[in-house]
């Protein structure tokens, strides 16, 4: 249910075509469906402009499919993140039109791709090759929420001339998402080059004192550039979502 | 130096009024001044739309005053953060027109207040009374960067009806800054109510397992709402800066 | 052996029907049985009102079965927690009347279900779908100890209206158990709505800075509501046990 | 305002003596007063049976006094915790009838002591002499909430016969609060002796690997007795509050 | 080579039967053999009274066998710790007279059992059933170094009467080794009962805030009894070795 | 009260000179005195062979003096550790015969020095000059418990020839206490030279990654020599006590 | 491309044989090749004197092979580190002349071995047998960069005479690399013996409080010898690279 | 005593001018002087080419002066680090020719400045103004050990053009020392520009998640450039010493 459907219903109530009781019932049903193991929150589409996203980790394939079925009945697209290949296989058997991106562990069930509506391009960058899966989760999310997305990969600070060769894309971007593991320095450098908001995503790439991404996270929170805010380790989805939220027209 | 001054200079070069060599000299000087203990980066005003901010902690009052002098010569306003009362007294003696906010530890030297130019109001909230200094640092920063700022204090999640009585302000805001210590739950709840970006600021308020703000930080990074990004502990300045960046028209 | 059996024995001693020596022998045996790798503590049923529970993790299936045999001879019910499916299969072959709950990893060997005896209903809530196994361990434990248990799942703080739709259950409860991972904010919000004790259970659900449940744990220990106490990460059993202890008539 | 006052008002509304509008106004005022730096939550007395407690740390003496004034107008008692001697002096000058307990850093402003109404005595124990301030904060809180409180101090596990000499008090208690620093072992031992709920309070007493109370906290969360739940480090107030909540008749 | 062999050789040098050069050669060889991946330190038997022990973890089966071959040629017994079942199978094929204790992951190659020579019995205790493997590593080590060893298992502090039923063994012991996971409280209680040295061994038994044994370790280092010293987590071998060292006549 | 006094009393009971009731009374009094803020444990002298030691930190000067008074009435010596200079001044005014060692923060109240009774000399070593206070706390304790003590200071591993020049003392020692901060390597090296037990004491000397002594602690727990056990950071008292316990004849 | 090739090209430009535009094109191509998932940085050979090394972990075998193909076309040797056996098999099928060192997880593709050009021998030491793989990664790297490398393994500080028997090698070395796990004490001792730079490599060898190498790392950063600098845990490659950099003539 | 003095003495022994016994005596004295609280290691000048440096923290002013007196008798210069202003005043009264650098907390007692003898200039950089004290400790040390030192301050990565304006100094340097706090990214960027060894010094500048320098430390250990090695937090002395060691001709 989107805003249009809602308004139609309310106008019917206003005009007396639909009784209050029946409208309430149908809205109640429409908003939150309680299916034993989950409260599917259709209200979110109204409140947020994008349906609830299913966090695949820690849910069984059966639970995910059950939630998808309810959402699919009312929403234009369903996004499942952190979905293992094994569960994806189970789900694609039930929803053959869904597309699974194995490296980003994202599944997208989409009737039609959304029109581009952001204020400008979202640029998604990764410091290394190993950070690409996280960057991809971000770009798939931002694209699914109606944004033009550009990507630049493997431009870590140890060879800073590689970064500068993409200056044009950097300056054109409306919002930037920068994924980096190890010392997590890239967002600080990039943010120093632009006057746009930068969403930094620490990744768990590295070993030893990278501490599973904690070092990159802490480094990013200490970025000497001030136009940086940070999301959880490996949370490409959150970065893409936040970028889309900022980029709303 | 702002964009207008720069363009005037460049037009003079274009028209032959000013030689390239002399323009380069004056620009070089204008951009980065090296004063032994600091590189004052005037270029930032052009690049970022806001002059470099002086981080007061760890600098001597003399160093801060030295940098302010250089900036004051070229910029409309100078913001000094994390400035102790003792250093502030030293500086206010030199810059009598500056205003010091003791609770937020912020000093502002401003010729004229900037016109409001953001896309909508920035709402700054605090979970408790003790989080107000951090919230204030955020609101002073956002205001100094040309934003209309609203504030709501002491609306923590333990008495959630207090929060709901401010629903109107929450829904009107273009960007939200939410400061909270202890369990850091407020940003998650607030973000669940809106479809706008929320900048979460963990504060060091609490004791024991609040771990100096780390618990609030980690909780915010795990917010189940996706429209949340986080800045460093007690970094009210960064939150206000990021909000202003997002709120640019 | 329960209080009745004990009193019968003591009356026999008092009346001279049983000699002190023989009573001591039988009590000694009854209280603590030393079976090489374990001291089975039958005394606990007298002392605590509920037999010792077997913590399955780190014990071999043979050791667990050996302890169950001793307990089964004297107690009305035996609860085994943290029992892997593999060990459960081994044990169910020996105790076919036992019931295994795979998601909660709990095995219950029970002659008759205990009568309801608590002061009121125990409400067990989970913030997300992935927290259900921990919540279930709590509800199975509380039920096995003679309590009426209600459950409400997937009502995290990001969509707080989902929580409010269960206000009635919340207000009716005598004790509440609230399981949450990630930012662990739910207990704080729930505790703010009631004047009953809330037992918070952090779960290891999440990734990155959820730190395997440490973030939820620390957040709960910092709950701004004061009617909250906390148990170990993923310790559904402990939460259910503590709730039952509080709920004694 | 307590339940009686509320009911009187509502009856007046029911009988037409008071108009709905005027009742709403007065209730609105009664429930939450917004005094710039704080939302004083009178509603809590109704919701929780005990007025909001003022957490003194991080608030100025002026802010605390301001909140006290509002609460004092409507509540029977006001409790301020974590109050430094310096702020206490400021406040006692304004509220001469208030009593300050310097070791527990608690100030109590109380018209009449509350009648005893708990189900049985609350026993507050400390492992060492240095843990007494935290234990005292717990016992003052529980007493202020209408409970009979017994105390036993300095009975750490290294001389376990000291503990056993208090077995009678231990067995008589309805709820137990056990404060311990260093290795935090006392709650586990005490809980093993009773079938009543034990609230464990880790204290920051110790040095080196006591890690400011984290070791005691973690040890308590790992107590092998199951009738234990834990509150934050040095949170004597929370322990006393939770004990009172559990002990309600 | 033991002290006797050494003395014989030196007497031969003294009497002129053996030349200095040839003695030096043979001693050089005897003391440290360099076999590419290891310096086998025969000198240790002289220096320490017990041959070097092979730490199996992180070495290949081939490397372990190579070192054993060198040691076996000169020493009465070889102890291999932290040896996986798979590597043990490989080694037992080469040294069929060796004995492998799978639960303690210890392999012992021993020509004759050493005579008992300690000052009194070493008592090895475990708090739970799951701590037995670590306790066993300690008792095997102490026995192999010539000590009488007694064991008492599963006497954790939650049921303290189980502990007291072994008071006789506790008081008879010359040195005590106490293994415990979770809250690690047992060493503190036991040490309070005796005036003998207690070696505490934290184990990694537990979950959540047991932090893989760190909580037990820190608790033990904070034991309020002073006759306690601690070894590394799960280091049963070290505890047994240290106990033997203390127990030397 | 020591063993002799106790036996005299018991013989009087046996011979009928003293009634059981009066003996019990006097023993009860003798064993544990409850003085509001402390249970003075005279029983410990019997149980441990050394009276309870007063841990000065966290107790007021008044509390310490109160406990000393009780102990002084029955014991030959009283040791107070972690005593600040300020509190020491207060106490020395009341007990003028007491001796305060400011660097080790130890106060000793001793009628006569105890005779030497250990199995051999205890050697106390420090890695650096800054570790001397901790080493001194250890040597004062061991001496007060009847041991001959030798000391060697400032022999850290960076100039290992300094260590070897004390080889004779090292080899003569019956037990060794080794205090070290920073990288904490000295115990490992020293233990490799002897076949005697080594008690390692990490100190908080260092900065940055010395983490207040945690690094030295962890390094010592990982000592590749097996004849090492460890006490808490800066716990010179515990090391000296443990050494004395091991060195009993 | 190396310096010679570059100079030839530039001379061709200088002499007019090659146009500026065509040279720029070919240089552009030569410097950084963008192959979707990676920016291959040929420029590094010029800038650093050694081609970019491929960090194998987190890249697919296909990605590694793709980067190798590009590098192989221009560089004399390609080094791949942290390469699993499985990926190595895939790569060796494509580059049959490459050599894979399974224990060090290093693959080397080298047309001709580089001539020795360092200032003196690089000595690589390991404290234990289990540290050899890391030491080997260091020595393979240093050798591939044109250095004479000596190795000494298993000379930990617990048997310090083993170390001294290699004094000659130690004193001859121009730079030293010292790998150690557990307590990480070896670099401190070795650095105390020489006046050459020592690169310390902590390894993850150990268990319990070795904390996956963090303890060794922190100990090394606290080395009381000042001629020590440290690289990441298990970073044998970095140590060898840094040693080569220092050893340049 | 330096190498020349030593050789003169040895030649006198060789020629019979000095007896072996008397030479040994004088050497023994010369090498290590034991002054109760310290072993002054004169041998180090021979072994290391630079006298032992006095770490001022944790030593009393009297102890420092005592050690200086011994060193001053034999060495050309004495360096004291981490010396508080208060202790410095005490020492300068005794050694009026010494120079104290208050910001770097370094005192230098030097007869004549050492001649420049390194392979090239050492470049010391700082990321911010607040990092200057640490950078200064490094440059004073390197200069005192005979190196030409250049400094560049306040060139953090957020304004990367400031860094590039010093490219010439960067490329000329033989060794680089880079001090940075907060996110610690500067060494990685600088190391990417040169093929010289970079010594990275994390500083404790920052707040919140800078964790007292741990974040910068971990980031530097994860530098994606390989020509970086790291010293302890705020260890400017160690960085300067290591740079001098590397720069030896």
From TrEMBL, chains A, B, C, D, E, F, G, H:
Q: Which organism is it from?
A: Desulfosalsimonas propionicica
- Superkingdom of source: Bacteria
The entry's protein name is PurE domain-containing protein
Question: What are its GO biological-process terms?
Answer: 'de novo' IMP biosynthetic process
Q: Where does the record place the PurE domain?
A: 120-249
Q: Which residues form a coiled coil?
A: none
Q: Please give one Gene Ontology molecular function term for this protein.
A: hydrolase activity
Give the matching SUPFAM superfamilies: N5-CAIR mutase (phosphoribosylaminoimidazole carboxylase, PurE)
């Amino acid at each position: 249910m989107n805003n249009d459907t809602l308004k139609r219903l309310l106008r019917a109530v206003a005009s007396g075509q639909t009784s209050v009781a029946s409208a309430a019932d149908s809205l109640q049903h429409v908003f939150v469906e309680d299916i034993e193991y989950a409260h599917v929150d259709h209200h979110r589409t109204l409140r947020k402009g994008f349906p609830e996203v299913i966090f695949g980790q820690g849910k069984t394939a059966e639970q995910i499919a059950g939630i998808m079925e309810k959402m699919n009945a009312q929403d234009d697209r369903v996004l499942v993140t952190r979905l293992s290949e094994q569960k994806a296989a189970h789900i694609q058997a039930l929803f053959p039109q869904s597309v699974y991106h194995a490296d980003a562990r994202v599944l997208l069930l989409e009737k039609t791709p959304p029109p581009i509506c952001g204020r400008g391009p979202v640029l998604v960058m990764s410091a290394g090759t190993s950070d690409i899966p996280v960057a991809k989760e971000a770009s798939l999310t931002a694209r699914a929420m109606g944004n033009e997305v550009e990507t630049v990969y493997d431009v870590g600070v140890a060879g800073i001339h590689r970064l500068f060769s993409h200056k044009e894309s950097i300056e054109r971007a409306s919002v930037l998402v920068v994924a980096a593991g190890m010392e997590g320095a890239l967002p600080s450098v990039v943010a120093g080059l632009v006057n746009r908001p930068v969403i930094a995503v620490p990744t768990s790439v590295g070993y030893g004192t990278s501490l599973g991404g904690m070092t990159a996270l802490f480094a990013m929170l200490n970025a000497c550039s001030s136009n940086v805010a940070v999301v959880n380790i490996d949370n490409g989805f959150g970065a893409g979502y936040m970028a889309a939220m900022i980029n709303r027209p």
